[in-house]
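Quick one - inputs below.
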Amino acid sequence: MSFLARLAIRSHRAIGRQTRRYSFTSSRNAAAPVDAGFGLRINADRLQESIHHTCQWGAAHRYGEDPTQTGMCRLALSDDDARARRWFEEETRKVGCGVKVDQMGNMFACRPGASVDRRPMTAMGSHLDTQPRGGRYDGILGVTAALEVLRTLHDNGYQTNFDVGAINWTNEEGARFPKSMLASGVWAGAIPLEDAWQLRDIFNPEATVRSELERIGYLGSMPCSSQAYPLGAHFELHIEQGPILESAGKKIGVVQGAQAYRWLTVNVQGRDTHTGTTPYATRKDPLLAAAKMIAASNAVGHSFEALVTTGVIKIPPTSSTNTVAAEVTFTLDIRHARDHVVEEVQAAVLERFGRIAAEDGRGVAFSWTLDSDSRAASFDAGCIAAVEDAARRLVGPDGWLPVTSGAGHDSVYASKQCPTTMIFVPCKDGMSHNPEEYCSPEDCAIGAQVLLEAVLGYDQLRLGLRR
Amino acid sequence: MSFLARLAIRSHRAIGRQTRRYSFTSSRNAAAPVDAGFGLRINADRLQESIHHTCQWGAAHRYGEDPTQTGMCRLALSDDDARARRWFEEETRKVGCGVKVDQMGNMFACRPGASVDRRPMTAMGSHLDTQPRGGRYDGILGVTAALEVLRTLHDNGYQTNFDVGAINWTNEEGARFPKSMLASGVWAGAIPLEDAWQLRDIFNPEATVRSELERIGYLGSMPCSSQAYPLGAHFELHIEQGPILESAGKKIGVVQGAQAYRWLTVNVQGRDTHTGTTPYATRKDPLLAAAKMIAASNAVGHSFEALVTTGVIKIPPTSSTNTVAAEVTFTLDIRHARDHVVEEVQAAVLERFGRIAAEDGRGVAFSWTLDSDSRAASFDAGCIAAVEDAARRLVGPDGWLPVTSGAGHDSVYASKQCPTTMIFVPCKDGMSHNPEEYCSPEDCAIGAQVLLEAVLGYDQLRLGLRR
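Output:
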C-alpha cells in the first residue's frame, strides 16, 4: 500500500484535528487544495522543477534514461557551484528577500517579518555543493525546499511575525576542501576564518578556499560569524541518508540531535623495495600494514557498536606492481551517538595500529592527524516541538519517528549558536553520497510542507520568547 | 674488514692460479695494473663516470648532498630515455660498433669479431629505463658495464673470435607501459608486436608504445624478433636487488635461473554510501574487503613460502572520507621458484577472496585479470660455467654464490632464444626500486670485470660449439 493510499485511509478514519488529510499530486492539474496548517500549501511540482533545474549545474554519473537520472558533481566554489549560487540569489530576491554574503561565501536570504522588533531571522539552511559522486537531494533538497517555503509565503502574501529566510552554507561536503561543514563552522566560531580560507583543493593545491571565493565572486565583505549575522533559529530539511525511516515505513524523522564523529588521516611509512627480491623478513611494507589496520579498525568498530570506516586510501603515484610502496595514507571516520565512545574507539584503534606496525618484517612507522572532531549535538526542544507538531498534523501520529542524525550537517554547527533542529525524509534504500540517491517527489513535498509549518509554528512560538 | 682488505689477505695466502690478486682503486692514480683474465682490465673510474653521466637524464628524488645522491625517474620512451639512448648509440659507435634498432626500439650495438663464420653476437644486454622512484643501478649498471667492456676491448685492440655487443632493451620496468620486459618479450616471441605497440602510458592513455617510439625517433624498421636479429648468447650484469649476497658477504652471484611470477589486477565492486548513516549490515564496502584480501594474500604467501605482494591500490578520485568507496583496484605479485607453487598460491588466494567478499554487510563483487605470467627460467650451463670461471678467478672460491633471480629480467626472455645467464653484484641493504639503491664503485667494477671475462671465456668456448 502506498503512502498516499495509507494517508487517504487514515483521513477517512477522521481521528480529529490532530490528523488531517494531506496529499501532493505529481501533476500541475492538481486536485483542489486541501486543508493545511496555516492555510498554506507548498507547490510540490515547483519544488521538483527547482531541484532538477539546479541540477543542470554539475549533473554527472548518468544511471538511467530519464533526464533526472544522473548524480551530481558540484564541488564547492566550482563554476557550477557559482551558477547555482547566482540562481539562488535571483530566486530569493524575486520573493522579496534581501541577500547578504559573508567572508566565507555563506548566502543569507532574508524575507522581512512584521515585527518592528527586528530579531534575527528564523532560517532554513542547507547547502548547494555536492560530493564528487553525489546525488540530487543531499543539501539541494534543503535549499530548494527553503526557497519553496519563501515562494509560498510570497505568493500568499503571508506576513510572518519575524524575519524568515534561507541560507546556502559553503562547502558543507568537505569533498573539495577537506573539512566538512566548513563555513557554518566558521560562522559558529568553531573554525578560525584564516584556517578555512587557507584550505586547499585536494586535487589542485594552488586553489584555496579564499582564492576560489574571490574567483567566483562570492568573497563577501560581511564577517562570517554569529555575531555579525545572528540567527533566531535554524531549521534544515534533509534526506535521511540512511535506511531507518524507509524500513520502519515512516515519512518524517524529527531529529533530536547528531552523533559525534571524528575524522583522522593516518600515514604509514615503509620502504620501497623490489617485490621479487626482498624477503618478508627485511621488508617495511606500509600497504600490508595499512590493510591490516583498516580491517582491525572495522573490528574495533563492531566491538564498540560504533561506525568506523575508511573511505580514502592513497599511495604515491610512483608506485608499481613490483615495488613495495614507500608510504600509504588512509582516512578513518569514527561515529557514535556518545562523545566518550568515539574517544574510546579512537584510542583502541590506535593501540591496535601500534601493534600492527611492528608485526611484519622490519615494521613500519605511522603517524596520524585529527582532521575533524564533531561533538554529539542535542537540538532545541522548541524547534523539535514545532517540527513534531507539523509532522503529527501532516503524517499522523504513526507517520514520524524521533531520530538521531548519523551524518554531520550545517545544523550541528548552527545549533551551537541558535535554536536548531532538522527534518528528515526517507531516501531510497537509505542510499546517499551516490549518484542514484533518490527521494520521491511526494516525500520531498511532505518534507517541505513540514518545514513550512514548523517555521510558521516557531514564528508563532517566538512571540512568547525573548529571542 | 673491507672486501678489498679481505681480498688482499687472500692474495697473500697465495692459493694458486685459481685465485689472483685483484683490486680496483677509486682514483685515476691507480696502482700498477694487476694480472687479470685475458690480460684486460676494465676501467673502474670510467665505468662510474658513465653511470652517473647517464643519470643526468632523469635524476630525481634527491636524498643527500653529493651530486650522485639522487634516485632516478627515467620512464621508458620519455625524453630523458631518448637522451640516454642517443648517448648509448654515440658511445658504442666510437668503439667500432654498428648499431641497429628494431621495431620495439631495442638497440643492438655490435663489435665485429675475427671469424669469417658470422655467427650471431655474444651480447651483453640490460635496460636504460627506470622505475618512477628508481635508483642509479637497476639496468643502468648492465648497459654501462657492457659499454665499458666494449671500450676495454677497443682500447686494447682485442679481437674476439665472434661478434660481441651491447643491447639496450626497451621498457624493461613495465612502469610506464604496464608490461615488464616488454621488448625482450616481443623479441623472444612471447608478446605479440601489435599488443606491445598498443600498450598505453598508465597516466596518459593517449600515448602508446608505438606513438612514443615514433615521437622520440626510435621506431626502427628491423623486425623485433630472434629470427631477424638472433643472438649467440646473452649475459647481463645486474644488482641483486635483494639482501642475500650482502648478508652472506659474497661479491658475485652466478644466476642459475629466475623464479616464476604472476601479476594479477583485482577489482572489487561495492556501493558508495554515506559513512555516518549506513549501518554495517547494509553496506557493500569494497575497501574493507580489499584490505582483508591484501592481508589474507600475505598470509597465504607465508603458508606457501612464496612472496605475495600488493604494490598498488587505487580508488576512484571521487572518493571521500565520509563515503564508502564504490570500487577498489589492487595488484597482486606472486613469486616462487616453481611454476606450480605460483599457480597453487593464486588458487588459494582467490578462494580466500571469494569468502572475504561475502563476509561483511551485503557483500561485494570482485573480478581479476592475469596481467603477466612469467614461468620459471633455467639458464644455460655453458654461460653459467663462463661466469663461474671468471668469478672464481676474481673473487676466489668463497667470494661468489649460485643464486636464483627473484626479479624478472630481460635475460629471462632472452634465455628462451639463446644461451643466457646473469651476474649479480650486491646492493646496499638489498634495496632496489628505491632512490637510495646503491652499489659501491668496487662492486660495480668487480661485476664489470666478471662480465668482461665471462664474455671472453664464452667467446673461446664458442670455438668448440656450433652456435
